Task: inverse folding
């Protein structure tokens, strides 16, 4: 909703512009809403409890914004499906999150954050997308995206 409001207010000042909304623009924020507000912090257990609380408090909106972007979600799921296919499912998720989080720092626009925050936020975004991959795929198929 925040992104839609920002787009409308930004475009509202332009006189001869038409607002175009496609299915992808509507469906992906809905998918993000269905993913819920819970942040999977299992993959940052070695972090200080205070840092985990800080990430949950200060960066939850950033995490939500990242998980509702079509390009990011599809790239994470595509990369995840290519990685470590020989590992059991639970290990596969842990391995992917632990080994690939740095690849997503720039994609998620986390470069300006301290390294420990970059790692925590990136790991949470990856884990949140991967944990909800079946729900995301089901919704994507149902709406023909």
Result:
């Amino acid at each position: 909703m925040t992104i839609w409001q920002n787009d409308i207010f930004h475009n509202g000042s332009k006189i001869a512009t038409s607002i175009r909304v496609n299915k992808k623009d509507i469906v992906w924020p809905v998918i993000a809403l269905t993913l819920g507000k819970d942040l999977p912090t299992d993959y940052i257990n070695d972090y200080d409890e205070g840092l985990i609380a800080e990430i949950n408090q200060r960066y939850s909106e950033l995490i939500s914004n990242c998980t509702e972007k079509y390009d990011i979600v599809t790239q994470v799921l595509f990369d995840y499906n290519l990685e470590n296919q020989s590992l059991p499912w639970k290990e596969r998720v842990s391995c992917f999150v632990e080994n690939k989080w740095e690849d997503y720092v720039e994609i998620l626009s986390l470069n300006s954050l301290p390294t420990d925050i970059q790692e925590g936020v990136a790991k949470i975004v990856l884990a949140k997308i991967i944990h909800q991959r079946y729900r995301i795929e089901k919704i994507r198929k149902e709406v023909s995206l």
